[in-house]
Amino acid sequence: MRLLLLTLIVVSGASGLMLHASGQEDYAPDRLLFTVYLDGNVQVDYAITPDPILPSVNVTLFGKIYDNLLIQNENRTVLDFRSGRGPVTVFTLGSRQAAISYSTQDLVNKSGRIWTFSVVSPINFSVTFPREATIISLSSLPRSIGIQGGQTSILMQSGRQEVGYITGTLGTREVSTLLINKARSVIEEVKSRSVAVGEAEAKLREAEVALRSQNFQDAERLATAAIDLAVKTDSDAKAAQESMRGGETLVKQAETEGRTSRLDEARQLLQGAATRFNEGRYVDALGLAQQASSVAQTSARSGLAMDLTLPIAAVAGGGAAAFLVYYFRRRMTISGTEVAHEKQVRKIDVSKILDVKPHLRAEDREVIQVLAEMGGEGFETELREKFKFPKTTMWRTVKRLQREDIAEVVKVGGQNMIRLKEPPPEEGE
């Protein structure tokens, strides 16, 4: 499938988890995938985490008519349900997950040559179009675009979203002109955020030359490449900014805790990241910022004088020696993971993980990013503190990352160490 354009009205505040349309709090939406077919039929695959102590949950689905509705729990046991007007009642007692699949024709409508897919989603979602389709409009800038088996998959923000597309023969002046105009819109949208898109602009100029030469297929191909470059550059810039902010936070935290042994190195890396960012080298900036975060995370105290002040002042004589033994044993217990577990700092390619798993929820992506900045692993308690998640929310997030084979949980000193797995190598590597 050829992606032709992304017009784009960025919807502020659309990212992240929204309240469910039905107001329900007895389940959490985990993953949502749409597959659009040539006849306008849409396959829906929706995963939720129900409250296991409730006998049933009322789930709001997408569309009004659900064909071939099938609901299974984590053991692939088929769950009973009751459907009618409004939410579907799913009998989930004891189930930790429910996978819902069905097809519907209510999410796509057609006017002339133009088909429009529209949905209101409580979470970020992925939508895949047939090979023969050409995207002609999007209601907001997507989080990512990928090609799998010749089909375009787009990761969209939560909220109300629409995607316009056409099917059939391309290579016409009309479509080429439409594509180039919309490519200009995408590039201007990205530039409005002070992101350098020189490569995308160069591709767009090539597309304009091809259009003037009446080489319409090349014009479409080049304009599509311009759009892809603009969207990818915007995504890289956002990731670099987030990683730089995370690195600065970790440096300040280490400074507050007196862990200053490697902070000069971390600051130099952040300075290098800022320089690369200002030059428009966003991928390089991201790599340096991640290195800075790892260095700050592993920075140790430069000496023991500060640690010994309070214990020595608190005791005297022979009791001091005994207290110091207790104090250092206590230090080893509290931060015992540092003694019993030698952290292996790794550089994790977050973009590779997200390319393979474009359907991940926003909070899952943020946890992956933070773990990468921490050198690939961190304690569950640290993550809860950073994100201010309730214990149950953090537990569900970790479980989702385990199910996706992105992370593993290792017991260290009685605590849960969350460790990112290495992303699979790309073909040809």
Question: CATH topology of the domain at 2-168, which one?
Answer: Immunoglobulin-like
Compute the number of strand runs.
Answer: 18
Strand order in the largest sheet = 5-8-3-2-11-14-13
Task: Estimate percent helicity.
Answer: 40-55%
Overall description:
It is a single chain. Residues 1-24, 304-318 and 320-340 have low confidence and may be disordered. Among the domains are: 2-168, Sandwich (Immunoglobulin-like); 305-333, no CATH class; 335-429, Arc Repressor Mutant, subunit A (Orthogonal Bundle). The radius of gyration is 26 Å and the shape is flat. Strands 5-8-3-2-11-14-13 form a 7-stranded mixed β-sheet. Strands 1-12-15-10-9 form a 5-stranded mixed β-sheet. The two termini are 25 Å apart. It has helices at residues 173-191, 198-212, 216-256, 263-278, 282-298, 305-314, 318-334, 336-340, 350-356, 362-373, 380-387, 391-403, and strands spanning 2-3, 27-36, 42-50, 57-59, 67-73, 81-82, 88-90, 98-104, 108-111, 114-121, 125-128, 133-138, 144-148, 151-156, 159-167, 377-379, 407-412, 415-420. The chain is built from 12 helices and 18 strands. It is α+β, with helices and mostly antiparallel strands.
